[in-house]
Amino acid sequence: MIEFTTADKPFGLYKGDFNLLVNWITNTIEVENGKVGEINVINCSDDYLLDINKEHLNHHYYTDVITFDYVVGEIISGDIFVSEDRIIDNAQEFDTSSEHEFLRVVIHGVLHLCGYGDHTEEEQKIMSEKEDEYLKKFPNVTKI
Length: 144
What we know:
144 residues, 5 helices, alpha/beta, 47% helix
């Protein structure tokens, strides 16, 4: 089951049909040879995600997404925290729409759950290519 919840900020960037998001995430996981378990996408503010970053990762900086992996075998489960504030800033920085950036961040978290990393340059390259691949599969997403 894939659910969309909020921590301290309601979903404001994505105005579309959440069933499309669920189907897109499900299809991504299946293409990556997994099965959907329990996945929570949690919308929050920069400050909320900063507190998580400090507490759980000992990182003292803002980030757009933090993924907690609860994967067991091929059952893909986890919590994906996304910072709406950071997504808006990133969209402006990368000259894209906030919706497009929201989808990129969500699929980034899903790809982490599917086993992709982003610590090395090679992993970052693969992650970016995978993000682009799956973003193209989302119906009617506008980049700008």
